[in-house]
Amino acid sequence: MAVPLVLVVLPLGLLFLLSGLIINAIQAVLFLSIRPFSKSLYRRINRFLAELLWLQLVWLVDWWAGVKIQLHADDETYKAMGNEHALVISNHRSDIDWLIGWILAQRSGCLGSTLAVMKKSSKFLPVIGWSMWFAEYLFLERSWAKDEKTLKWGLQRLKDFPRPFWLALFVEGTRFTPAKLLAAQEYAVSQGLPAPRNVLIPRTKGFVSAVTIMRDFVPAIYDTTVIIPKDSPQPTMLRILKGQSSVVHVRMKRHAMSEMPKSEDDVSKWCKDIFVAKDALLDKHLATCTFDEEIRPIGRPVKSLLVTLFWSCLLLYGAVKLFLWTQLLSTWKGVGFTGLGLALVTAVMHVFIMFSQSERSSSAKAARNRVKKD
């Protein structure tokens, strides 16, 4: 990690980790004291707490890096966003697709009640992973034999969720890379399926379970297509921390859950057909650099900026008081302790960055094995 980057990561890391540990501690207390008696009250309070933490990442994208997100949606979809439960399916193109989803959820007023199906290791990430666990994210091992029961139980417990939520499901099962695309194309040819060009073949078992369980209480599926224009650099956590902008185009299309097929095989086929259409849609975007639907204004609300300023002032005040009270920097032992703490923050932030990139180097062999599992 270059020295200039360290000078950026340290203050941002301190801000996020310290505020996050405060939020996590409050979440833990509420989980033990309120949730056993009122799950609804716990969820309402936790929604507010999660936003206090996650808005800092929204601020990073919106205000620090200035990433520009262009949303395309028809009238029905745009008016429904944030006003109903929704199952959100998307292609998985970049390191920060989940963060793009958070930003759109924040604009729709449901950031604190946003959920996702994540890989199990995510919940062990300090602060952010813990906050997701308290927020009832679903964590899977990517083995259907192990995950089927966990997924179905996690979906069923959302029936009484008190606020509109989005549940994000990346049905491709992994992030798009050239090696994984090659494996998907080889598999498609061997199975007599259309060979994909811009997406991977969806793994539909989780999607079928989600539709089967949620069709009675979730009114819509939001088909989301994400692409980075050819003339824009790929957005990564590293670029965002450096304050470097990117452009992301997102198309959202609402499908009524009531119109979904009834049989599991037909639901699986519906999902595969959606991704065939999505592939053609991305071909068209590569040629025209736009989607057909109207561009919708999403703005750049100041809420994330105000929350970040609040945490900055609070933690700075607390740090000054702590150093004056303990005189921590007046002894070599105190200086060493402080240096060790800063090194630990740098290491944790490095882990965050590497974790966000963890799938981009998957080999073609590993990708082929992953495709064949479904």
Provide structural commentary:
This protein has an eight-stranded mixed β-sheet, sandwiched between helices. The chain has 374 residues and is an alpha/beta fold. The protein is 55% helix and 12% strand. It is built from 13 helices and eight strands. It has helices at residues 3-33, 39-64, 75-80, 97-107, 128-134, 144-156, 178-191, 205-214, 237-241, 264-288, 303-326, 332-356, 364-372, and strands at residues 68-73, 86-90, 114-119, 138-140, 166-169, 220-227, 247-256, 295-296. The two termini are 38 Å apart. α1 (3-33) packs parallel to α5 (128-134). α5 links the parallel β3 and β4. The chain has a single domain (3-304, 350-372), classed as Glycerol-3-phosphate (1)-acyltransferase (3-Layer(aba) Sandwich).
Euclidean distance between termini CA atoms: 38 Å
Under the CATH scheme, which class? Alpha Beta
Number of helices: 13
CATH architectural group: 3-Layer(aba) Sandwich
Query: What is the fold-level CATH name, i.e. the topology?
Result: Glycerol-3-phosphate (1)-acyltransferase
Amount of beta strand: 5-15%
Low-pLDDT residue spans: 361-367
Q: How many DSSP-defined strands? A: 8
User: What is the topology, as strand order, of the major beta sheet?
Assistant: 4-3-5-2-6-7-1-8
Indicate the structural class. alpha/beta
Overall number of structural domains: 1
Name the overall outline: globular
Average pLDDT across residues? 90
Rg calc? 21 Å
Largest sheet: 8 strands, mixed
Query: What is the helix content?
Result: 55-70%
> Secondary-structure element sequence?
HHEHEHEHEHEHHEHEHEHHH
